[in-house]
Design a protein that fits this description.
Layout: E1 2-11, E2 14-24, E3 29-33, H1 40-48, E4 55-60, E5 63-64, H2 70-76, E6 78-80, H3 93-99, H4 109-114, H5 118-135, H6 153-165, E7 171-175, H7 183-200, E8 203-207, H8 211-217, E9 220-225, E10 228-233, H9 235-239, H10 242-249
Parallel strand pairs: 3-8, 3-9, 6-7, 7-8
Antiparallel strand pairs: 1-2, 1-4, 4-5, 9-10
């Protein structure tokens, strides 16, 4: 579903990514891990189109999308969340999630401004789909009319996941979805991620520092360190890899 081939990215003299290659198999959860500064978010930004790689290619569902803009990639079916919450704080939960469905709307700007006929019907259908499929799924019906500023951090992260799900993505990219959460919030988010995979068949690419969660829910893991790919395999293979152990714990003197 998603294939990365020999991806290189640099910022001046800093080499953020050096020859990254891996595949995210359809309907599975692939984890990307590594110490701070390893290049995980840079990789996400290159895949989603925010950064243009110096070399290498990104394939989505068999199509080379390396030269496509972020909005075109979103239209094809790539959705993502962000390491720092990127919600519209002056809007309600429902309106934030509805924004995720904009790539599915067919009406043009003038029809939307008039909000009549096809434009009205389309938005009502989108709202019905979001309320039935996303809001109920994430168990946030009781807060759908709340402004984002009234919500605790854990619920804001859940709303951001809901906005991504509103796009009906084929590939869902989650950038540290449980960062800053307590144990109960982390368990809830892990359950929702597994449910997205099982109920919707979505391919998931996950960046996360919580190793317990990564080992529990991922079928394949890619490990980065200083922009280089140092390991790739099942959780069992990665957790026993000496290069991975040294990257996280430091080599013995």
């Amino acid at each position: 579903m998603l294939r990365i081939e020999d991806l290189h990215l640099s910022f001046g003299g800093i080499k953020a990514l050096q020859g990254i290659s891996f595949e995210a198999r359809p309907g599975e959860i692939t984890g990307v891990i590594g110490p701070n500064g390893a290049g995980k978010t840079s990789l996400f930004n290159a895949i989603s189109g925010f950064y243009k790689p110096d070399r290498g290619r990104v394939f989505f569902d068999g199509q080379d999308i390396t030269g496509l803009s972020p909005d075109r990639r979103a239209e094809l079916g790539i959705a993502r969340t962000f390491q720092n919450i990127a919600l519209f704080r002056g809007m309600t939960v429902l309106d934030n999630i509805k924004l995720g469905g904009h790539t599915r709307l067919k009406t043009n700007v003038w029809q939307a401004l008039r909000y009549f006929g096809a434009a009205q019907r389309e938005e009502l259908e989108l709202r019905r789909d979001i309320e039935e499929r996303v809001i109920n799924f994430l168990e946030i019906d009781h807060i759908r009319k709340y402004p984002i500023t009234m919500l605790p951090y854990g619920l804001q992260k859940r709303v951001e996941l809901g906005r991504a799900l509103a796009m009906q993505p084929k590939v869902l990219m989650l950038d540290e979805p449980v960062a800053g959460m307590n144990r109960e919030e982390t368990a809830d988010m892990a359950r929702f991620i597994l449910d997205v995979q099982e109920q919707f068949g979505t391919t998931i690419l996950l960046v996360e520092h919580d190793m317990h969660m990564v080992m529990d829910i991922c079928s394949h893991i890619v490990v980065l360190n200083f922009g280089q790919q140092i390991a790739s395999g099942t959780p069992a293979e990665v957790s026993g890899n000496q290069d991975v152990i040294e990257a996280y714990l430091g080599a013995a003197a």
